[in-house]
Amino acid sequence: MAELPPTIAAVLKQAAPTLQGVSERGRFEAELLLAEVLGRDRSYLHTWPERVLTATEQRHFHQWLQQRQQGVPVAYILGRRDFWRLTLSVNRDTLIPRPETETLLEQALLRLPLAQERRVVDLGCGSGAIALALAQERPQCDIHAVELAEATLAVAKQNGMANGLSVSWHNGSWFEPLRGMSFDMVVANPPYLAADSPWLAAGDLRFEPRGALVAAEAGLADLKHIIDQAGDYLLAGGWLLVEQGYNQAEAVKRLFIDSGFFNIGHAVDLQGIVRVTFGQWQARGESDEWG
Ligand SMILES: C[S@@+](CC[C@H](N)C(=O)[O-])C[C@H]1O[C@@H](n2cnc3c(N)ncnc32)[C@H](O)[C@@H]1O
């Protein structure tokens, strides 16, 4: 019997079930990979299901499909991930920006008035997701970003250039490269998983840098450090906002209280998880100005 021609429709039909063990969105991911191989967007696949793939396109698609079958995240295969209104380059040196981090970003934006200049720092900037989205949404603000891993920072800088956004980048550990500076806002999505977290053996996390994911003291060590030090770098009335793990909200709130923050609150992500804690530094009597 003659073999069916490798049309877009036929190739996708075959590919999608092979991703079943890896992803709940096998068909969607197969479409993403194939669209990229063809240099088109996904709508092209639906418009031209009878289009026959060349041998080179078939080979390329199968290589990527195999990587995905082995668990490699789609973002690392494609080399990019969308975050907020940005498309960011990512590689194995960077955490893949997560939708839940947009909750942290939204909370930061709520506290940055549209037309007022503020100085903000994003600690542990990774691909630059938070710092760059802040620079995009609040171009009048002076945005800084700190990252420990040089290779990661290089990706963030590249993302800044590619998107034409201005951020002052600093290499170093948390506040250490910021000595002598003060800020209206500190934002951080630090590593917060415990070293024995079962999540580390599942999904995309298996391929992401450990230094972006894991912190000592059951995941709380970096959060503790940042919350403890932030007061030395915040102006009176300034905000600290951090992302935390699904079960860390109470512990993090306690750290904010113990460090002397006021107006402490939480924000919930789209999955209903208490994902963000925020608080104001020496804010009593100044909350009118800061809202
Ligand atoms: C959870 S990732 C967040 C990345 C990015 N902000 C995002 O939300 O997609 C934490 C980041 O903190 C960085 N990091 C870890 N320890 C650090 C330290 N001591 N000082 C500065 N950055 C650090 C990691 O390299 C990683 O890029």
Plain-language structure description:
- There is one protein chain.
- With 291 residues, the chain is α/β, with parallel strands linked by helices.
- The chain has two domains: 8-71, Orthogonal Bundle (Helicase, Ruva Protein, domain 3), CATH 1.10.8; 92-290, Vaccinia Virus protein VP39 (Rossmann fold, 3-Layer(aba) Sandwich), CATH 3.40.50.150.
- It has helices spanning 8-18, 26-38, 42-47, 55-69, 74-78, 101-110, 129-137, 150-162, 210-213, 221-230, 249-259, 287-290, and strands at residues 80-83, 86-89, 119-123, 142-147, 168-171, 183-188, 234-243, 261-268, 274-281.
- Strands 5-4-3-6-7-9-8 form a seven-stranded mixed β-sheet, with helices on both faces. A two-stranded antiparallel sheet has the order 1-2.
- A hairpin with a 5-residue loop joins β8 and β9.
- The chain starts with 7 loop residues before the first helix and ends with a helix.
- S-adenosylmethionine binds next to α7, β4 and α9.
